[in-house]
What does this fold into?
Amino acid sequence: MAVQVVALIGSLRATSSTAALARAVARAAPGQVAVDLTIDLGALPHFSPDLDVAPLPPAVAALRAAIGGADALLVTSPEYAHGMPGTLKNALDWLVSATEPIGKPALLVCGSPGGAAHAHAQLAEVLRTMGLPVIDGGAHVFSRARLDAAGEVADPTLHAHLGAAVAALVAAVAAATA
Ligand SMILES: Cc1cc2nc3c(=O)[nH]c(=O)nc-3n(C[C@H](O)[C@H](O)[C@H](O)COP(=O)(O)O)c2cc1C
It folds into this structure.
């Protein structure tokens, strides 16, 4: 079964470690899984209900269309001030009134030097509130210091953990579409 996954990455940093986590999930995924890593949450305007009307801002329409064509979401995020980054909350606010994400499983992977437990708990609560079943990919003590020279996740234990997490996501998609 082919599975399309859209990645929402909470950091806009060019050398983001949580973007590397998303790429590692894509590498660890089984062959039938395609992960779209191209969504730029920085292109979204600040959410306002006044803008959440037709015609939608182009970046918002593109985000919703990408999710509409996908089976599942991947959310990776650092922790900022014991919460999720504003960039990610802004993106999720744009999706609250959308029908495209509803019922689609979301694999949640957080990483920060302090372990990202607060951001992870906050994101899990928001995603569930939006009607997305959450697959827990963990809150990790993680930062750019843990990346290899190419800026990728090299830790085999973490890679294996992400592989198991994305397998659980595929199982959730299969269960949701059975
Ligand atoms: C504004 C700001 C707030 C932060 N707050 C926290 C925090 O509360 N807890 C924590 O563990 N790390 C915190 N950090 C560190 C980031 O989580 C860490 O640099 C993370 O690896 C960044 O992810 P990235 O490489 O994907 O950009 C903060 C960083 C910034 C810039």
